[in-house]
Amino acid sequence: MRWIFLAGTFLTAIPAIGRAQSTADARAELDRLLPEWRAAREAAADGERLRRRDAGATLVERGHLRVMADSAIVGRVASAAATASASLDRVFGTEAAMLTGYPLVALLHGVVQNGDSTHVIRVRRPEPLAGARPGAGRIGSQERVISLRDPHAVDGDLVRALEAAASLPLHAALDDDLRLWLRSALSATPQSQETLEGAYVDLATASTDISRRCLAGDVLGCRKALGLTPADDPVMEGYTAAQRRMVVQGNVALLRTPGRAAEFDRCVVDSEDTACIARLRELSIERLASSYSPTVLRRGFAHWAMAQGGAGAYSRLRASAGLPIAERFALAAGMPADSLVARWHGHLMTGRPTTPSIPPLTAVATLFWIGACGALSLRSSRWR
Amino acid sequence: MALTMTRWIGGASAVCALLALNAIGREPTPRTQPEVPADSLRLRDLQRRVGEASLRWEALVRRDAVLAQIASARSADRAGPAIIVDPLLPATHRSILERAIQRQWSSLGIDSARVPVTVAVIVDTAVSIDRLSAGRGQISHDYVVPRSDAGTTGESCVAIIGLQSRTIVRPGTERALAAAVALPRAAASLVGPCGFVGRFGSPGEGIDRWLRARGYRFAAHPQWWTLPPTNADLGTRWQLANAGAPHASSTLALSPQGRGCAAGHAELCAGALGASDSAGAGELLMMLRARDEHWGSMSGRYFADLATALGPERFETFWRSDLPPDAALRAVASTSLDLWTHQWAVGLVGAQRDGPGVSLAEWIKSLTLAGLSLGIAAWGWSRRQVR
Fold first, then answer.
1. ipTM exceeding 0.90, yes/no
2. CB B263 within 8 A of CB B351
3. What gap in Å lies between CA A297 and CA A186, rounded to an integer?
4. If exposure means fewest CB atoms within 10 Å of the residue's CB, which of A212, A216, A276, A326 is most exposed?
5. The model's pTM
């Protein structure tokens, strides 16, 4: 009976949605749909709870982290949640307490990949958002899928997925300035040596004025590379001539406007740098900064600064809204901004990769295959 | 046992045969997706409907605010559009928008608007109830296109531009705003269908009815060029105007009907211009709702490209016609709407192949490559052979 009633409501609502032309009508329509939507949300939440009960789902509580996991993976999830919770506490301190209001779900699903059946663990926020705490910014679902194909990698992947998914509500609760500076949620996963090496290599191979100055230890250069101080002229300082041409070429829809097509062509076809500079002047600072001030560098700096500040660093960072970003990190780390950047530069330099050498296994495998091919060729006779 | 060439070939053939047998013998594994529960599906459907209703309500609130302002600030000057910009915007942002609107207006060659046009820019960064209208984009484009007798009643065509993201309205974000309105399609959307109304007057009854049944999406991006008058047919003129090579990814937006139309099945063209999301006379046109399932974002230029191909005089006759578009087009250009749509699609996405197959050029390339490989193998054979 309830379904018939709901279907009737739905059918009567369809024409009105499309035709509502007075604001009052549209508002009335919305008011009529909202309770139905909220009821459906609650019904879906109830259904989800039932399914989890049938699947033997258990609520795993580790620190401030809450994960509803299927019974088949509950042990694995509990272990990962303990590690993730420790990371969250270390990075976000007392602010991680808000995560108790944002539980996660870990589900075991059978899927077919390239014709083979396998299982994956999906880590996400519960689909019906009923009961979510109001007031925070918008939080995407951003589901993480962990394949069980490689048993050695599963536990590490699961920890990283929980750390990343849990950081989304914390990111949404940040003020605009800090959220835009970070660009995406700062995960609690500590920066690995590979990430540090990657950041060093990116900086060393960028060849721009800003990157060179930062690499040489110039604090102002590093501040610009981190987006803590605006570049005086991002087009000239943040890009080489070849990079300018590439960026212009890559933004054809935006930069080859009818009035400026000739200038665009002079840049892209004739490699005329003055034309490239003129074209790039029309791009927004944010778009330009994404190249010379990469997110990986900013994240690495944020992690490192908070590690320097110890307990309460993240709370100080959050509480200092309204101050320039550099000052906020200085407050969080408990040292002057320039000292902080200079010491971070020293830390970044430790990411310089060592000279690569051939691993012994590769050397042995190479010799084996050379020998095998040689032996086969010696046995081959002339073709008769 | 010596590894002679015959044995090498025999061994390789045996392995290939085994692999082929294994592939043929294996039952294809059906691709399975995790089952989505019925209540989740119902929730998603309701979420979409509530989101749409929320978007519509927000657009109507913006419309009411703008119409109230227009009543008190009506201008008699028809050389340009009347521009009303939200005083909440910083001066640099206002200047960027005013210049972008004026530039777009000038590019349309409108000396004196047949029907007064107003472009209103409103800052609307408030988050909707329960965050229902998520994903609404940085800028919304809504239009109030007057009825066909607007020329005499003095009704104006109104473009309502809603700035919905703080990243383009806060002080210091003027370059982001400039980038957001610089794209050709975004610039054309600043005036939208009002560009046609300003340049050619109110559409005739037949054209208006046809466009309203399609949410005016085929007139969303006014941008035309003036070609010298020639006796060439519509398709040839369109080819002359549209010299750019088709974009490689443009076919991805096409529906099967759209692709069939581009492949020469003119009977499918009418279906690809099908009605949906209809709007009554004087109703608010929301371009976000009017996304085209057959042509993607290309549908917005359909009428603008027809204006380029026909030339301004003939297009004006077509635009103001009381006949349906097919009859109106036959009257001014002796061409059916289906044929024009086919020519337009070919110009935009290139000629499409009718179903899967291999082109003659691909056949020739494959045969040449095979012949070359055989020749090299035979040459090597003759050199290795012991006589």
1. no
2. yes
3. 12
4. A216
5. 0.64
